[in-house]
Amino acid sequence: MKQALIGVVCLAVGSLGTYYLMNRHGVHVTPFPTQAAAPASAGANGEALITLMPEAAARAGIEVTQVVASTSGARLRIPAVVQPNAYRAVIVTPVVSGRITRVPVELGQHVRRGQTLAEIYSPELADAQTQYISARAELDAHERDVRRTEKLVELGSASRQELEKIHAEHTAAESMLQSRRSRLMLLGMTASHVTGLSSSAQVASTVTVPAPIDGVITVRNANIGLNVDPSTSIFAVVDLTNVWLVGDLYERDLGRVRIGSAATVTASAYPELRLEGKVSYIDPQIKAETRTAQIRVEVPNPGTQLRLGMYVDMEVGEAGTGAGVMIPRAAVQMVGDRTVVYLSNPARPGQFVERGVTLGDASGNLVQIIFGVVAGDTVVSKGSFAIRAERDRVGDGGPAPAVSSGVQTARVTVSEKGYEPARVTLRAGVPARITFVRTTDATCGTEVTIPSLSLKRALPLNQPVDVEFTPQKAGDVEFVCGMGMLKGTIVVQ
Predict the structure, then answer these.
(1) Under a CB-based contact definition with an 8 Å cutoff, are residues 333 and 96 in contact?
(2) Distance between the two ends of the chain, CA-based, in angstroms?
(3) Which end of the chain is flanked by fewer CB atoms within 10 Å, N or C?
(4) How many C-beta atoms lie closer than 10 Å to residue 237's C-beta?
């Protein structure tokens, strides 16, 4: 009798101690009630119910906002990076070998087509001019020989054979001169300059490197004293009046964008800037690690306000048709591999419900929720991290199934990751209803099967499908997709 009394006293002291420790922090976590005591749309998923004392909520700076219906006509909003238009970018290389003696331009400078970018001292150019002058003098000599031989043939002092030989030598001299002329043209000399080249006093050993297009110098490898050849890249000149915006398009959104789709571009650096462009390219290959395809939008860039490497937002594609609601991005938290929000109970201030959700498209500071909350719910938009931290610290002892009108309920989302959650807990002997919602086409889970119960249901996209049964005994019941690749477990207790 004495030992029993001591045990009762110890249990009471332990309970009071636990209560004190939990409430000194202003937070306590309890599992959902087993009856329909939770507010509408708060508690239907069998998640943890978290209660904060007023002083704890004040310290966390908690703010709430009401969930609003999403705009089904919203276009896709994609972050992108400014890149040069590759069709308007030129790598500049010298046409001769030599040593750079002058560089009159700087990195980032705007240049006009034909403007001198660099000067190169080139013995190769001087040698080519000397060879041209020599070939020209040789041709002049052959022309004089032709005229003299023709007169001798008329007088009978020279034979026709000698005249033909002179004509052949003259033709060879003409060909050599033309070859020397063409080489000078390839080395950057103008036709008028070559034509006027007649003596060694006119030989120039310096060649200029002109800008090939109007644009901005984005690469400058040229420095005085650098030895270069025709394979050396010394400048890059880019026309920035037209640029590319490159972003990643998720696989699920490919049907909403096509080449030629209109795009609107905004940049945080210029709040009033709005540029209109079109989708010019969609990568035909999906990245396996991100399930995205690269998308490119071409836009004009007046005043070259958009700089290379800058982040921008672009709205592209056709109007969406997916249902859902919008909540602030700050309301979303990650708990393990689950995406959750915290709902507030207006009837019970300080009481919050952790609810698993399925995300859709993002737009600015808002994100679409396809499944998990409905318009009119109240979510924590500021301070949700503090609620999550306290929940993790205190723990919830594991979720319990919700029971309404004598039926225990649970919900399972079929996403790109598989079943979420992949483990559902039910009680034996109580009628159950599991609602499955498929939120993506990128899955094999277009139907769900519970082999041991001989149940099979098709899962249309974004349409809730109820599977009803009564678990008879404790144990694990497996549910799978039609191909047997996705698997989940019903734990019957």
Answers:
(1) no
(2) 35
(3) N
(4) 25
In the chain, % of residues over pLDDT 70: 83
pLDDT in tens, 315-340: 887 654 445 688 888 888 887 667 88
Residue whose token pair is 């139907």: 447
* Dist CA 360 CA 339 (whole Å): 12
Beta-bridge mates of residue 216: 110, 238
Q: pLDDT tens digits, residue range 110-165? A: 999 999 999 988 888 777 778 888 888 888 888 888 888 888 888 877 788 888 88
Q: Residues with Cβ < 8 Å from 190, sequence gap 6 or more?
A: none
Quickly tell me which residue has 């807990």 as its tokens. 425
170 alpha-carbon distance from chain centroid = 67
pTM over 0.85: no
Burial of 171 (0-12, 13-18, 19+ CB in 10 A): exposed
Give dist(CA 352, CA 95) in Å, integer: 73
Q: Confirm if 443 and 416 have CB atoms less than 8 A apart.
A: yes
